[in-house]
Known about the structure:
Elements lengths: L5 H22 L14 H9 L8 H6 L10 H10 L3 E6 L2 E7 L4 H5 L24 H4 L7 E9 L4 H6 L10 H14 L10 E3 L2 H7 L4 H9 L1 E3 H10 L1 E9 L10 E2 L5 E8 L3 E7 L8 H11 L4 E5 L10 E6 L3 H10 L7 E5 L4 E2 L1
Parallel strand pairs: 8-12
Antiparallel strand pairs: 1-2, 3-6, 4-5, 6-7, 8-9, 9-11, 10-11, 12-13
Amino acid sequence: MLPLTPLEIDDAFKNAFLYGVRHHMDHSKDQPNYGLDFPLSQSIIMSQLVQPFLPAYTPARTASLQIKKSSWKNVRKFLKSLDKQQVVKCKDRGDEVVIMDIDFKDRQLEAFMPYRLPKKDAPAAASTNGKLAASSSTAESAVGQKLKLVSLLRPKEKLAPILNASKADPRGLYTSAELKHLLIAYIGAEDLIDAKNKRLVKISPQLADALLGSSAADNAALSSGTMARDSLAERMVAASSPFHAILRNDEDISSTKPKAGAPPKIQITLETRSGNKTVSKVHGLEPYHILPQPLADELRKTCAGSTSVDKMQGSSPKAPVMEIMVQGPQKDAIIKALEKRGVHRNWVEVVDKTKGKKK
């Protein structure tokens, strides 16, 4: 079978989105907005309205049906195309696009004809409390996924002379290793390596302005006229702003837009309630492509106790953070469930309020 063309992949993603919306319209008629809680983030849209409805009948089709292989190349442009067709209303929010509203009377939605899905049972639409829920197929979408956390750096303006001299983009995003290589290229191009000790670099006016401050170590370097190359590399990293991207499965960094700031951590909190009863809470799942409700369903069975999913207290109404609560001290069970979904232990922070500890 010939591989799918970009146009065929475009059609598959658009039809999957229409199918996902129609499914909610058909199965959640009595709920506000058919159980869809606006605004919808990119991760929610893809994991709950698109991926479960893609016609991925074979491994080959599954490999072809990737957003990076479409004509849009990324989710942002895909959603913008739906906005242009007036099926949805989108808005830029930070580093992503969110759907603020859907025209449920759009002729494409009204005329849409469901097609056969790879699994017999279509995804469930919404839970009884009106929150967007997931079916078994959606629930399993995160299980077995492979995640890659990429930390990047954007040089601040004062580093522009070094980047320009190295013929690199002053506003580009780089790994710390790439920044170090650019510094080495600059040092070589300007012939700044100390003749007596190759680990030392002669301080040029550009290096002094870009990387040195008023600390005792920097003043000593200015006095001697040289500084260790590794120390300069550390200052170059420190003079850059952190960005991050969390890539799923075979996703390429070029198909996503890195977010500003250090990579977020999933937080597990242990608290004491009603005397000596302990509960475990977990939030920060969405950036790791994990849906709270399916995870809560699994933990309810694994821990043999009640679970709940609610908006985290204090989170923004426009961009709510969902939090799972599990009865009992279930840190190990939660971590094990997260590891099944590709989360590395180092990406999880545990706060034990029952003992006042942070682990």
